[in-house]
Write a structure and sequence with these properties.
Elements lengths: L2 H23 L4 H50 L1 E5 L4 E5 L4 E4 L1 H13 L8 H13 L10 H9 L9 H15 L7 E3 L5 H15 L9 E2 L10 E3 L8 H29 L2 H8 L4 H6 L1 H4 L2 H12 L1 E2 L6 E3 H14 L8 H11 L2 E2 L4 E3 L1 E2 L1 H16 E10 H18 L12 H8 L4 E3 L3 E7 L4 H18 L6 E2 H14 L7 H11 L5 E2 L2 E2 L6
Parallel strand pairs: 4-5, 4-6
Antiparallel strand pairs: 1-2, 2-3, 7-11, 8-10, 9-10, 12-14, 13-14, 15-17, 16-17
Helix pairs in contact: 2-4, 3-4, 6-8, 7-8, 18-19, 18-20
């Protein structure tokens, strides 16, 4: 017997009992008992019949309204994609293109406005509103599958400027998604330290919406700290990216971090994890080999490859390679191969001491030779012979490169020096490693130095005096811009085939070479030559 049948049986018994009590009460009054009989046999069936009809009508009406309410809720949810961030209490709207913040009051207003157009649902509009808001609050950003246009926009803003292929972007985003969804947290993903500004932007922007509920870049590291190599992965970036690429990407991240997170978690769920994405879709590809390089290649093998490429044995007793030079080569090798430093320097030195004869007193490896170091030493010879310390002066790396070419061309005529040396030297790396007291700015400028081969400030002064003479002779009464003065300076020194300073340095030096009373903002006044 069902629960309802049991309940009805009890009602039947109590009803019969009540009816018997009535008959017993009026057992001496046939008029009343006849009325009870008439009511039970004639009136009551009719009343119950009408009640049953009304009940069925109500049931049908309630079922129809419930269906319409459900249909309205589903239609609203499907036509208006909203989601909720529990940790911050923020609502988001997805317009099939991008995710953006929205106000709960605006959502409620939109719901009530639409319900008000449905007359049959008007009575239940607040109930419907509550149902929809509850549904939205159960929908997180990670449950929404982004549209193709959203995915492509994210990919196109990272390829080819930051990554060399869309597959690398996908891998990077899947790693981000794994971190958000807390998958494979034991892995370590190494990236070039230059990428730090973008990682910081992603972390900071996501925290504005999700607080500290997750760290999207948690497994991404910029330096090696004795990690297990089998847990290490590599994420390559485009070596040719520019400062503008970085600036544009940071701007995109700040404006579209929600889209990035949505695409990242979508990829993480779609491919299950970043490792599975590579193993299942890119097996034996160049990307696969790069990602798992540290996992697949023992440290000893990497050191052996390094030695074969950069250091050779020789029978010449006086030939040696200093430990500091080996260290430079090791760093250079890592940078060229976009690898983190996966071994402590002392450990590297101990391994090399077993391979080569080491002179502890001189701190060099004997009977060794490196053609690469030969070329570095040529640059260091140029540096020692021509570069001097001078306050408030600076040399741009490109300018040093030009000056080195001038010096090298002259030296090559005097002695049999190797060809194509310049193409193999990253000047800023050499300077920062071998000349540690030097101050650099943004890896582009060397501060407080001058070169004996070029009177940088003197050339500007000479050009300004020439401008002064020319304008005085032509009786020019109009001011000239510093920009125009720079063009005149460039034209003059191009004829002399000399090195030309950059526009920024020229503009900075002009106010120090001309009395400030002759300068108004970016203009040189006629009083300078009158």
């Amino acid at each position: 017997m069902t629960k309802e049948e049991t309940e009805n049986f009890k009602i039947s018994l109590t009803t019969q009992e009540s009816l018997l009590k009535l008959f017993d009460k009026y057992k001496n009054n046939s008029v009343i008992t006849k009325k009870i009989q008439h009511f039970v046999t004639r009136q009551l069936p009719q009343t119950i019949g009408h009640s049953e009809i009304e009940y069925q009508k109500k049931q049908k009406r309630d079922k129809l309204i419930a269906k319409e309410k459900t249909l309205f809720v589903h239609k609203f949810i499907n036509c208006n994609q909203y989601c909720f961030i529990p940790t911050s209490g923020l609502f988001l709207e997805y317009d099939k293109n991008t995710f953006k913040l929205c106000n709960e009051d605006d959502i409620q207003h939109k719901i009530l406005t639409k319900v008000s157009n449905e007359k049959t649902l008007l009575q239940w509009k607040y109930q419907i509103k509550t149902t929809i808001i509850k549904e939205i609050k159960s929908t997180t950003l990670f449950k929404i599958i982004p549209e193709s246009i959203t995915i492509q926009t994210v990919l196109e803003n990272m390829f080819p400027t930051i990554f060399i292929s869309k597959e690398w972007v996908k891998y990077f985003l899947t790693v981000i998604g794994d971190n958000i969804l807390k998958k494979n947290t034991e892995l370590i993903h190494f990236m070039n330290p230059e990428f730090k500004i973008l990682l910081t932007a992603i972390t900071e922007e996501s925290s504005k919406f999700f607080s500290s509920s997750f760290n999207p870049t948690d497994t991404i590291k910029l330096k090696y700290h004795d990690h297990s190599l089998e847990k290490c992965r590599i994420i390559d970036i485009n070596k040719n990216m520019t400062d503008r690429n970085f600036t544009d990407c940071v701007t995109f991240i700040k404006s579209n971090v929600l889209d990035i997170i949505a695409v990242a978690t979508y990829y993480s769920e779609r491919y299950e994890s970043s490792d599975k994405y590579v193993r299942n879709t890119l097996m034996n590809s160049e990307l696969y080999n790069r990602v798992f390089l540290l996992y697949q290649t023992p440290i000893q093998t990497q050191i052996d490859r390094f030695v074969i490429k950069y250091i050779s044995l020789t029978n010449v007793p006086t030939s040696n390679v200093k430990w500091d030079e080996v260290l430079f080569l090791w760093k250079y090798n890592l940078k060229q191969n976009n690898l983190p430093n996966i071994i402590f320097y002392n450990s590297l030195k101990e391994i090399l001491i077993k391979k080569f004869k080491y002179n502890e007193k001189e701190d060099h490896f004997e009977k060794c030779h490196s053609t690469f170091i030969d070329k570095i030493n040529i640059f260091n010879e140029f540096w020692s012979g021509t570069i001097k310390t001078k306050r408030n002066e600076e040399l741009e790396v490109e300018e040093i490169h030009e000056l080195f070419k001038i010096w090298y061309k002259k030296q090559k005529k005097q002695a049999g020096m190797p060809q194509n040396i310049l193409s193999e030297i990253n000047i800023i790396d050499v300077i920062t490693h071998f000349h540690k007291n030097i101050i650099t700015n943004n890896d582009k400028f060397i501060l407080n130095v001058k070169c004996d081969l070029w009177d940088k400030t003197g050339n500007i002064k000479e050009s300004l005096l020439q401008i002064k003479t020319q304008n005085k002779e032509s009786n020019n009464l109009n001011p000239i811009s510093i920009d125009k003065a720079y063009k005149a300076y460039c034209k003059h020194h191009k004829k002399k085939k000399g090195v030309i300073c950059n526009k920024q340095f020229f503009g900075k030096k002009v106010p120090t070479l001309i009395d400030i009373k002759h300068i108004d903002g970016t203009l040189i006044l006629p009083s300078y030559w009158e």
